[in-house]
Structures are given as structure tokens and as C-alpha cells.
């Protein structure tokens, strides 16, 4: 399988850019954007409240959290792996931020960095389990997902941690450096730019794509595959930690019961955008579009008063369609 990103000459030939797969990936992004437009237009007609700016900001806020997690998941999926721990990992990072800022009384910047570092640590654990212990990514990250969920409840005492006494924390997500646009959205866009640069211009992204394209050939070329997998999972954990901080700031609390289900939305956003579950091809722009689709769909169904159980059905159908589309795309690239 070929990669859609140009890589260095040191990488195996299996990851040299190919016009055919690149064209199909660009087509996938165009189709995803067209799908977003159709969904947006449908809900605009179906509900007079959908286009209200307050509702649009709600969609963007929801996109920010899911999208930041999806950015990290893009790197993992590019290697041909999977990360099921991003949802509960996000919650654990929010809880740890609460512990640092409220229980320990650390300065705001230190507490925020501590929450992000907690995410990096989770990613590091995932990477070590996958690379050095040889545990399949699905099982390794499933175990981390359960551990993170349990630790969130244990550390918080099963109770929310509120940030009411932490000056400035709520402004991280809900403040407006740009009038009318929540800071959480700006953080997401900046994170997307950083992720795009990492994927296309740095060794992390290039080696992630190389590993996903042909792991054996990558190893033969002299690249330490195990070490770079650890790096990739750690980078993904940083994005998970950032999502946890943004979520905690948005709610002004760390809710230990949240998290489950977010990983599916994040993975769906990645696949909808054109990143292959088989690895070797990834796109940050597509992930951003996919995150917008997931948030818009969920918001639209909610604003139309569709019962929550049917909302889950709709999201599940979207995930199935995304995976099936990826299967068709892989068949064409074969």
C-alpha cells in the first residue's frame, strides 16, 4: 500500500507518494465536506433553531473536544493501530487537572501542563504495551481505557471536581480572544495546524505513515519501529490530555463519569475524513471535517428532540458507513 505523503529517501519504496491513492483520498475529503454541507442544510431546514449562533457555537465547542482527540488518533491509525482509550483517558486527564489545581493548589499553567502530561503518560503506556510487550493495539488500549475509567472514579472519589475557585480556568475554553468565537475552537484549529505540520513535515508523521504502509520494510530500512510507535502513541496522548483540559474548562468541572463513547466518535471522525484504518494514509484536514460532521449530526438530532437512543443508532450507522467506505477505498488502492 502506498502513502499519500511524500517521505524521505531513507524510507521504503512502499511509502512513496502515488497519484492514484492521493486522488482518492482528496476525493474522500471532498465527499466528506459535501456530506457536512448536506447535513448542515438538512438540519437548517428541519429546525428553525439550528442556525442560531448560540447553537452554532455549541456545535463548534463539541467539535473542539472530539476533534482534538481525533487529531491524536489520526497518528495512531496512520500506523495501522487503534486507540480506544482516548475517551476515558480524556476524563482522567480532566480529573488530574482538577487534582493539580484544586486539591494541590498549583498555579494555573502548571496544573494545565500537568493534565496534558497525564495524557502523554497514558500514551506512553499504550506505546510501550504495543511496541515492547507485543500486545495488539485493540487489547492494549482497551485495557488502558478500563484502567483510566477506574482511576478517574477512584481519584475523584466518584464525585465531580469543580473549578469555581480557580481563576481564569473557565476562560481556557469559554473565553473569546476573537469576539464571538470560543477559545476552545481556536485551540482546536491551532492544534490541527500543529498536527498537520507534524504529519507532513516531521519524522513522527513520516515514520507513522511508513509503519502503516509496510512495517517490515520500514524496519529493514533501519528505522527503529518500536521506538517510533512509542513516540506516536505518546504524541496522541498529548492531544488526549489537551482535550481533557478543554473539556474540564468548558464544563468548569471534571466529571469522572464522562468519557465512554467519545473514542468511537473520534475514530469515526478520523475514518470519515479519509484516514485508512489499515494505516499508511492519513489526513488532518479530513479529520477536522469528520469531527465537524459528528458534532453537527449529534447536535442536529438533539435539537430536533430525537430520543437519545435513536441518536446512538444514527451515530452507529455513520460509523458503519465510514468503516465500509474505508474498506471500499482500500480495495481500490490494492
UniProtKB/TrEMBL annotation:
<dbReference type="GO" id="GO:0005886">
    <property type="term" value="C:plasma membrane"/>
</dbReference>
<keyword id="KW-0472">Membrane</keyword>
<dbReference type="Pfam" id="PF02653">
    <property type="entry name" value="BPD_transp_2"/>
</dbReference>
<dbReference type="GO" id="GO:0022857">
    <property type="term" value="F:transmembrane transporter activity"/>
</dbReference>
<keyword id="KW-0812">Transmembrane</keyword>
<feature type="transmembrane region" description="Helical">
    <location>
        <begin position="108"/>
        <end position="125"/>
    </location>
</feature>
<feature type="transmembrane region" description="Helical">
    <location>
        <begin position="184"/>
        <end position="209"/>
    </location>
</feature>
<dbReference type="InterPro" id="IPR001851">
    <property type="entry name" value="ABC_transp_permease"/>
</dbReference>
<feature type="transmembrane region" description="Helical">
    <location>
        <begin position="230"/>
        <end position="248"/>
    </location>
</feature>
<feature type="transmembrane region" description="Helical">
    <location>
        <begin position="284"/>
        <end position="304"/>
    </location>
</feature>
<keyword id="KW-1003">Cell membrane</keyword>
<feature type="transmembrane region" description="Helical">
    <location>
        <begin position="310"/>
        <end position="328"/>
    </location>
</feature>
<feature type="transmembrane region" description="Helical">
    <location>
        <begin position="56"/>
        <end position="77"/>
    </location>
</feature>
<keyword id="KW-1133">Transmembrane helix</keyword>
<feature type="transmembrane region" description="Helical">
    <location>
        <begin position="30"/>
        <end position="50"/>
    </location>
</feature>
<feature type="transmembrane region" description="Helical">
    <location>
        <begin position="132"/>
        <end position="155"/>
    </location>
</feature>
<protein>
    <submittedName>
        <fullName>ABC transporter permease</fullName>
    </submittedName>
</protein>
